[in-house]
Prior knowledge:
By secondary structure, the protein is mostly beta strands. It has one domain (about 20-350): Neuraminidase (6 Propeller), CATH 2.120.10. About 5% of the residues lie in helices and about 45% in strands. The chain is built from one helix and 24 strands. It has one helix at about 1-15; strands at about 15-20, 25, 30, 40-50, 50-55, 65-70, 80-90, 100-105, 110-115, 120-125, 130-135, 155, 160-165, 190-195, 200-205, 220-230, 235-245, 250-260, 285-295, 305-315, 320-325, 335, 340, 345-350. The strands form six sheets. Strands 1, 2, 3, 20, 21 and 24 form a six-stranded antiparallel sheet that branches. Strands 4-5-6-7 form a four-stranded antiparallel sheet, with no helix packed on it. Strand 5 (about 50-55) and strand 6 form a beta hairpin. It is globular, with a radius of gyration of 20 Å.
Amino acid sequence: xxxxxxxxxxxxxxxxxxxxxxxxxxxxxxxxxxxxxxxxxxxxxxxxxxxxxxxxxxxxxxxxxxxxxxxxxxxxxxxxxxxxxxxxxxxxxxxxxxxxxxxxxxxxxxxxxxxxxxxxxxxxxxxxxxxxxxxxxxxxxxxxxxxxxxxxxxxxxxxxxxxxxxxxxxxxxxxxxxxxxxxxxxxxxxxxxxxxxxxxxxxxxxxxxxxxxxxxxxxxxxxxxxxxxxxxxxxxxxxxxxxxxxxxxxxxxxxxxxxxxxxxxxxxxxxxxxxxxxxxxxxxxxxxxxxxxxxxxxxxxxxxxxxxxxxxxxxxxxxxxxxxxxxxxxxxxxxxxxxxxxxxxxxxxx
Length: 350
């Protein structure tokens, strides 16, 4: 029995976890500090091509990104990373715009979604504002979001030139209060698309799962932290629930990634109508493709990671698509006995 247990432990350490009854293979987390990548508040990631990726931070005092190079093993897992440069606007801001999502447009420009301003601005390749912005509908105004629950995600369909975003939690016009352990109800979201002219295209209704946590700690977050365009008909939506008690012990983060298919359902026809008044059939159907959790215990596992960014990696040797997830460590926040890490990890889809 003891030998069998030891063999099982060794197998779990040496090989990636294949998630049963799901479509994804989940590889282990990698601490980017080991590659010399600076500490950050990495809340978004986008693929630039040629093994280069841009990370956006939600606490930097100027718009821009951190560029890194990442190599991959034949299995599809990350091999190593290399810090390249910080690309920041020379225009200093009075305070951070709370940049949460980033999308690279093949022509060389970037779009960055900011939670504090509820704007999605275009940046040039050197990080400077171009004065172009997505025409965000009035329903997403700063006054209509709950504090710290605005735009958290941004995705781009390069084939059709379509952008996608949503708020982390429901708007004030759609839900009475943010979802939480004290309000154990799903939140209702509007997945918003924009056309190639940066104008609003369609809205789709989306309902998250209900919170899992039983009580809130010092830091709690819930909702959709990222969207990724898979193809013309499919999106991946990452739902995240994070709870950090005052002393860090029993901290937990749950990640659930769903596929949704907007092309199969009708968009919202009356966008002025509260989502709470819609029939259940109006919400996008979703399929679970990956779920995992991380956490911290003083006497136990110490792999807590708050994943907020998601983008495509390369195609692995077996023909599977890899997806990169990046977490927000709050600049490697912590106490003397423990600090959060800037983790990156790979999910592989067949």
